[in-house]
Amino acid sequence: MSKTSGKGMDSLSVANAQFCFDVFKEVSCDHTIENVLLSPLSILSALALVLFGARGNSASQIEKCEDTAVHLLIQALLSEISKSSHSQVHIASGLFAEKAHPFLPKYLDCIKLLCKLRPENLDFRTHLEEARMQINAQTENKTKGEVKELLFPSSLTSSEQLVLVNAISFRGAWKYAFQKDQTMAMAFRLDESQSKSVQMMRLQGHLKLGSITKPPGQVLELPDVEDHLSMVIILPSKDVGLGQVTKEITHEKLNNWISSGNMKDTAVVLYLPQLRLEGFPEDLAAVLAALGMVDVFDRSRANLSGIIAGGGLGVSKIIHKAMLEVNESGSEFTLTNQTIKVENPEIFNVDHPFLFFILHKETKTILFYGRVSNP
Prior knowledge:
By secondary structure, this protein is α+β, with helices and mostly antiparallel strands. It has helices at 7-30, 40-51, 56-65, 71-82, 105-115, 128-142, 242-248, 251-257, 285-290, and strands spanning 36-38, 88-98, 120-122, 162-171, 184-189, 195-213, 216-223, 229-236, 264-273, 275-278, 282-283, 317-326, 346-349, 354-360, 365-372. It starts with 6 loop residues before the first helix and ends with a strand.
């Protein structure tokens, strides 16, 4: 049994999925037609930075979003995922306080030990632009240049007290290669009346394929080259809107859809648009407040006495940005990917809006959840 197996991981997978669907529904209310991308596991890892030093109601409200028993498992799982040599995952989290509020030494020691990072004091009040650029540079460095400009000039104000940031990037390397010479322009139907031309990739191989009855559609699993992570594509029937699927999807349904009882090894030709998705840098404060995490954002009610001495301090912003790229393997992975011909294949043509998940296969933990309305 690996270190990511067992009951603790089961509880992490469930808590993470519940959090994922709750946050996604809230975010979708503000972004009804755009592409949406978020990483629930990465957001939870960032919230742990505040949870370690929150007390009283501030702590218990965060615990509703994150089970305290699992935050160490999150660190272990993210560490294992980011060490994967082929599918590249880079994560950056940071906690930054106005320089008038120094962090408690005990808190700094705890975060360094548990999360391998050091919260920092910055001068938001008189050197705001310098503070913003420092946070951006750190994020870009930790994500190996994948996430640039996390914070826009308008993202921060001089009254910030405590800013939590989190960024994650992903580039997939798949078991079966998308061949560059197979990519062609094809129509992608945006809605009943509009289509656009997209660069449609093609691959063939033996993949797990299943059907969904309510709401009607299909589900396909694309494993990465190490069988470590997988991309699960939920493709509704053409007459079913994505809104209906996102409303009805639950952790239990997703598990049923991807279960061995539903998914069968099938010869498949997959058509998938080239994807480069960047979740907009989202301040999740309002989203998390809607989910019950209220006190930590209200300086009159927040109790962060385990982070900074004295009261009257709240979290100003929680900024999350996810970046994901799925394209033809023009990289060093080409030789390791299989390219095969399949007989009598099923055609899985992702030519209209769809949902997808990037899962850690062993634990079925959701690393990314995305909605593609307009590739």
